[in-house]
Amino acid sequence: MRICIIAEGSYPYITGGVSSWIHSLTSQLSEHEFIIYSIGAQSKNRGKFKYQLPANIIEVKEVFLDAYLDETGEWGSRFRISKQEEEILSSLISGRATVDWGGFFDLIRSRQFHHTADFLSSKNYFDMVEEICRTEYELVPFTEMFWTIRSMILPLFLTIRNEVPEADIYHSVSTGYAGVIGTLAKHLYGKPLILTEHGIYSREREEEIIKADWVKGYFKDLWIKYFYTLSSSIYEAADQVVTLFNRNKEIEMELGCDGSKIAIIPNGVHIDSGYTNNQNSDEQTIRIGAVVRVVPIKDIKTMIQSFALIKREVPNATLTIMGPTEEDDTYFQECLQMVESLQVKDIEFTGEVKVKDYLGHMDILLLSSISEGQPLAVLEGMASGKPFVSTNVGSCKELLYGVDDGIGPAGFIVPVMHYEFMAQRVIELCRSRELREEMGRNALQRVTLHYQHRDFIENYRNLYASLKEVRYGRHRV
To answer: Count of CB atoms within 10 A of residue 6's CB?
Structure first.
């Protein structure tokens, strides 16, 4: 069977998290062929894969959202667009109504637009923006609104006009652009569509936009509604929606997904001695570690501030931040500047490493993220028998405290962006080897009972098999 996995901003350009999940799934299901439809942010990353692809990945189709920078259109044309088509486009731009995605795909992929930007340079588009300004944004300068909406939807239009490889099953690993492409694939070929949502994409984009400096205040609501609109496409079109834990299922239902088609398949890790080898034999040092990409959503700055407080109370503590730093160099430099300004010692950024070579040496592990799904970093840490201090994001509370499984806590949960609470809990663990060991044992017991890699793989093997014979006619969306 040929399966097309549609990924945005992850595999094969970035390591860890969703990328590791995709690599593990494709590697283990060697009986299937896979196509990777990869949506990246910047075309400069074309072909720069961070993984040695398994032999059963037969194609990687690369699409980049910054392609719109090279797109030009003919200004001032007026296209013959029906009233229904105008309403479809208006609903996408304004977020006021449900989008007819099938009609939208047919319109944008039609031959009447020689270039993708033609419509966004047309009198039709001018009239739509004018109407939105008149009815909803009277105080917003028209020119700003015109260019903001254009930059918002042009990458989507370009992506939709790309060819989609034929496959037996389409599997999007997020909503957003990847979800829209999955919906398009089902519209074109009538094949089964799966969505696996690790974190809640639309909620994550909302958090980013609220904090973003590049979005002016009066446009934040427009951008937020836009990403919720994109996510709605695959909630409606997917035959099966998979999430990692129950709270995510509840949120998806709140956002309009039919609960009857949502299944829960947790992530899984290998339980073997590779994680628990090389234990810390240095009694004089407390080694604190974090397996994490150095990017804003992981909130490394809160971790650094927390460690500055820890260091005052536990002078023999060290912090090792294990993960790639090149994804957002500006943020990485800001983190280094914070370390210097706080004059805190014994913080090491290792860059990308083999996690198994490091975890055994750690005494305590940290996660300071603003948003997560079900982090593999936490599961790997638990498999190494280490206690965690984590922010209350995604399924972390469920992982560390369990759900009526009779196993004690595997660490502590603290509020997001609250470095003082994080420091207090880490200091508590630093001062009690007995507590560290007890929570580490609980961690290993829980992950062994509920989060084994073999179960994760078998669940997806069965899911693919169950959809193998499902077929639909074209234009079902």
So the answer is: 31
| Cα gap 397→391, rounded to integer Å | 8
Task: Look at residues 204, 179, 84 and name the one whose alpha carbon lies nearest to residue 477.
Answer: 179
Question: Mind listing the pLDDT tens digit for each residue in 99-117?
Answer: 999 999 999 998 777 777 7
Residue 111: what pLDDT?
A: 79
pTM: 0.86
Cβ distance 356 to 275 under 8 Å?
yes
**CA distance linking residue 176 with residue 26, whole number of Å:** 22
> How do beta strands 347-351 and 388-391 pair?
unpaired
* Closest listed residue to residue 177, CA positions, set 156, 148, 194, 191: 156
| pLDDT band, very low/low/confident/very high, at 476 (cuts 50, 70, 90) | very low
Task: Tell me if 306 sits within 8 A of 423, measured CB to CB.
Answer: yes
Q: What is the pLDDT of residue 287?
A: 97
Half-sphere exposure of 69 (CA within 13 A, CB side): 8
Q: Mean pLDDT throughout 123-128?
A: 89
Contact indicator for 308, 344 with CB cutoff of 8 Å: yes
User: For residues 289 and 150, what is the distance between their CA atoms, to the nearest angstrom?
Assistant: 43
**Can you give the pLDDT at residue 474?**
47
End-to-end CA distance of the chain: 23
| Burial (CB count within 10 angstroms: exposed 0-12, middle 13-18, buried 19+), residue 111 | exposed
Confidence of residue 473 (pLDDT cuts 50, 70, 90): very low
How far is Cα 202 from Cα 386, in angstroms, rounded to an integer? 32
Bridge pairing between strands 57-64 and 169-172:
unpaired
Q: What are phi and psi of 412, to 5 degrees?
A: -130, 145
**Whole-angstrom distance, CA of residue 348 vs CA of residue 123:** 56
Tokens of 86: 């105008």
> What is the Cα–Cα distance from 32 to 215, expressed in whole angstroms?
43
- Both tokens of 17, joined, read 């998290």
Q: Is 44 helix (H, G, I), strand (E, B) or coil?
A: helix
DSSP state of 58: E
What count of other Cβ atoms lies within 10 Å of the Cβ of residue 458? 14
pLDDT attached to residue 477: 43
What is the DSSP code string of 139-191? TS-HHHHHHHHHHHHHHHHHHHTS-----SEEEESSSHHHHHHHHHHHHHH--
Tell me the pLDDT tens digit for each residue of 229-275.
999 999 999 999 999 999 999 999 999 999 999 999 999 998 875 55
The torsion region of residue 343 among left (phi > 0), alpha (psi -120 to 50) and beta comes to: left
* Three-class secondary structure assignment of 327-347: CCHHHHHHHHHHHHHHCCCCE
Whether omega for the bond prior to residue 375 falls within 30 degrees of 0, making it cis, is no
Residues 6+ apart with CB under 8 A from 354: none
